[in-house]
Amino acid sequence: MKATQPIEQLSLSMSWVKDFSTGMVRFIGLSEILGVIGLLLPSLLRIKPILTPIAALGLIIVMIAAFVYHILNAEYALLGVNIFLGAIAGFIVWGRYKQIPIQEK
Predict the structure, then answer these.
(1) pLDDT tens digits along 18-34
(2) Which helix (H) or strand (E) holds 75?
(3) Does the predicted model carry a pTM greater than 0.85?
(4) Three-state DSSP class for 47?
(5) Residue 85: HSE in the Cβ half-sphere, 13 Å Cα cutoff
(6) Segments making up each domain of the chain, as ranges
(7) If you count Cβ atoms within 10 Å of the first and of the last residue's Cβ in the chain, which end, N or C, has fewer?
């Protein structure tokens, strides 16, 4: 939604959108889309699977930035989502880098 939906419509469901430029909102949305692609494709295709934990680290950075933003704006109810998604990404980093790395073709 952050990458494609009109900003006016997006701001109805995400109040933080009003605090950022359109370019930044689109950048955040594109970063999340590319992060998900980076989580899936390298592992599924077994082409450069080391990119999977790297993509997960990128998503952790996005979640940390969102966490800090929500704390600074006293939006404490939204922190759980950031913690949950960051923990999943951390689990992927640990699992695909240390525990069960995927072998290249």
Answers:
(1) 999 999 999 999 999 99
(2) none
(3) yes
(4) coil
(5) 18
(6) 7-99
(7) C
